[in-house]
Amino acid sequence: MTTTPAVDPNSEAHPRNFGSDNWAGAHPEVIAAIAEANVGHTPGYGGDPWTARFHEVMKGHFGPEAQAFPVFNGTGANVLALQSALPRWAAVITAESAHINYDETGAPEKVGGLKIIGAPTPDGKLTPEIIEGAVLGRGNEHNAQPLAVSISESTEWGTSYTPAEIAQIADFAHDQGMIVHVDGSRLGNAAAYLDTELGSLTTATGVDIISLGGTKNGLLGAEAIVVLNPQIGQGMRFLRKMNLQLASKMRFLSAQLNALYDGDLWRTSANHANAMAQRLAESLAEVEAAGRIPGLSVVQKVESNVVFVRMPAEVAARARQRFAFADWPMERGIVRLMCAFDTTDEDVAALVAAIAGSTSSFGRP
To answer: Residue 160 to residues 52, 97, 235, 300: CA-CA distances in angstroms?
Structure first.
């Protein structure tokens, strides 16, 4: 009889890295929830008790009118959310750096049939003034019609909108006859950074529909769409099937989502990832202040679980002998260092030492 050897997830063969929070494994509590759901027979396609519980959990976070729909992935959630709320002639105004504009291979346009208008921003955050400048061709049959604003919370630059900032955007958008969508792949990180609730960033600010993240905060592969405005999204049940996002064994998606959101795991995991990013930024600031690496600097506010660093190419190459991380395509010479729910103080210290080219105590607790 052949047995499979136990795998140490923190061994040199399976190191933690800073490439993305998507690189992290699933949280042990999520794996346990999947195993607990793997019992007996239960109706498919959402007719199971785990999905029924998920609906109640979402109402607890987002209010009694919230309607929740588990899906497989973030791009699918974004496409489906926007498609369910908008006609085919609609345009969606978003930040130029937004995932729906830059990182989804044109899926909102090719699959969703919607025009995406990316507006330049200094930090990934839209404002009413930026949105107003992007509203073009209203009423002109030659132009896709601006009928939605989509914001990422937190943004692709790692910054977080405050509730007041989102409310200002929602007020402006609604006055212009537009809905507001939140790409909330890291909504938990933003809420943890701002020390607020998920509903305070969305329902209370006038948001209409959310793509709610899970995978980046420790799930195995589950996201959700949450409809807050009962006037939109009526076709969601049909479009979810058409868009290949309806799970037959939905209990396993819902069990994961419940593990994350039916309690404090979402906040605990997000707080930890955010704290590791803050520690990383502070440690790199020490390296910068010591004059160890000319040209090294943190270039954006650290308001979630990511640090953007201007880093000389030779320094990045040296650090990559030990750790993986991404070049940021939006601006040459900048790298993205992403922390996750399982990043440790020791990981941060080792990365900073690799960047500094030393075994010093930069970044150590």
So the answer is: 31, 14, 31, 11
Which structure tokens are listed for 298?
Answer: 């943190």
Do 255 and 247 touch, CB atoms closer than 8 A? no
Cα 122 to chain centroid distance, Å, stands at 19
pLDDT tens sequence across 149-161: 999 999 999 999 9
**C-beta of residue 132 within 8 angstroms of C-beta of residue 157:** no
The least confident of 3-7, 185-189, 332-336 is 3-7
Measured between its terminal Cα atoms, the distance across the chain in Å is 46
Structure tokens at 126: 């839209």
For residues 21 and 11, give the distance between their C-alpha atoms in angstroms, rounded to a whole number. 18
Q: Describe the strand order of the beta sheet including 306-310 as a list of residue ranges.
A: 297-298, 306-310, 334-338, 326-327
Q: Is the Cβ–Cβ distance between 296 and 310 less than 8 Å?
A: yes
* 307-316: pLDDT as tens digits: 999 999 999 9
Mean pLDDT computed over every residue of the chain: 94
